[in-house]
Amino acid sequence: MTIRESGEMYLETIYILSQKSSSVRSIDVGTYMGYSKPSVSRAIGLLKKDGYIVIDENGYLKLTEQGECKAKRIYERHTLLSQLLMNLGVDEETATEDACRIEHYISQKTFDAIKEHVRKYGSN
Q1: Crossing angle for the helix pair 26-33 and 5-20, nearest 10 degrees?
Q2: Is 123's pLDDT higher than 70?
Q3: Helix 37-49, helix 5-20: angle, nearest 10
Q4: Same domain, 84 and 61
Q5: Same domain, residue pair 32 and 57
Q6: Is 10 in the same domain as 63?
Q7: Alpha-carbon span 81 to 72, nearest angstrom
Q8: What angle do CA 72, 74, 76 make, to 5 degrees?
Q9: Which CATH number characterizes residue 64's domain?
């Protein structure tokens, strides 16, 4: 199942928040992302329908195995690309924003090549 960029952003946010707390709610996602309750509710509903998350009886969001795998991949792309751009001299804010755009469109083949380059030669 193909997931859109906005869905990937929500998955990444749920992943980041779940690393800090085992109790992640829709309101936490909205606060972190700066999105309205209706927008978050719709996105969460779609992620649940597509099997990326489950919502327990207390309203807490949990990534499914499929959701966690996807979220980790997105987060890895974001962090590696951000660091690479900063090491090239881009300021942190711009690097983070640009990495966020790139992470959704770069092919796995290209990302793997970048990752291998960084592994071999460092990100400087």
Answers
A1: 110
A2: no
A3: 100
A4: no
A5: yes
A6: yes
A7: 14
A8: 65
A9: 1.10.10.10
Predicted TM-score (pTM) of the model is 0.88
State the amino acid at position 109 in one-letter form: K
User: What is the identity of the amino acid at 116?
Assistant: E
Domain extent for 87: 72-121
Same domain (yes/no): 96, 54: no
Q: Give the Cα separation of 45 and 108 in Å (integer).
A: 27
Question: Do residue 47 and residue 11 come from a single domain?
Answer: yes
> Which parts of 54-107 fold into alpha helices (H)?
65-87, 92-102
Residue 121, C-beta contacts closer than 8 angstroms, at least 6 positions apart: none
Q: What is the mean pLDDT of the chain?
A: 93
Residue partners of 123: CB distance under 8 A and separation at least 6: 80, 83, 84, 87
Identify residue 82 by its one-letter amino acid code.
Answer: S
pLDDT of residue 3: 76
